[in-house]
Fold this protein.
Amino acid sequence: MICPRCGCDNVPGLDCCANCLQDLAILDQPLGHDRVESSLLADRVGALKPRRPVTVSITANMRDTVALMIDEKVGAVLVVDADGKLTGIFSERDLLTWVADLPPEKLESHQVSEFMTNAPDTVSPDDTLALALQRMDVGKYRHLPVVEDGRPTGVISVRDLVRHITRLCRE
Amino acid sequence: MELTRNLRHNAVARLKPTPPHSVPPDATIGDAVRLMRSKHVGCLLVCDGKVLVGILTERDVMTRVLAVGRPLSDTVDEVMTAQPRTVCSRDPIRRALARMEKGGYRHLPVVDDGGKPVGILSVKRVVHYLAEHFASAVYNQPPAPRDFPSHRGGA
């Protein structure tokens, strides 16, 4: 690896130049081949303008949770503990799988914590879009909570990401 | 740009839409929910014989059944979305994406030249297609991007 600053020929894989301590990691970082790939590598989750999270307390019952999802027109609500930290997520799919055929009067006696997905995968606002895309693809998620210091600050959906990419293709 | 070109030239069939699961319009909502659950899908086509007449998604179940307290013994045609937008399997991917975005759909029925439903294109397939397109950028991730050790390891 030739140091871009002093021209010293370094052993491949070094973090910094043995001669002048210039940071060499940048030489190994992948570069985008086109506009979309560059955006995936450089742009951060914050750039998607994550939607305000819709949260419920972990002690909430199912009736209130379902009512909130319907009122807010969201496909997933984030479940937070007493300190406001994210502990779970409850989505439309959970609703369909666990709750849809419960009689409506029974909903109150169930808590959201019984049916939610515990400790969901999250991203931080500073993570790259590539990481968010990888999480969504591998986990087959439709929503990813955006978390700072354990507290949810937003949600990005699969559609936000697809829209961002297709827009770059159109311009 | 390569992706732009591929979105224009690749056909929807390239995304391998999932084979459709369908119910007749006179099936009960309860049956539809059970079918969705057993097949792990969020979307069913409502077909009268071989003709597509509607689509029922888990969101419809939430907003039109649970939200209003409708009994699960009602029939599917009362809560489905009738005459959904479709794409042809030979259409370019770009057209499918534009329709999904315009209508805010997560699923689009895919039909053949004769209008017979042959699949369902979900937005997850699109995500997978995009991720594969930028495989090296997307799949090469450090195991925990925020947890770099503060000290060098080793003796």
Q: What stands out?
A: Residues 79 and 126 of chain B are 27 Å apart (CA to CA). The beta strands of chain B are 22-23, 43-48, 51-57, 81-82, 87-88, 107-111, 117-122. DSSP finds six helices and seven strands in chain B.
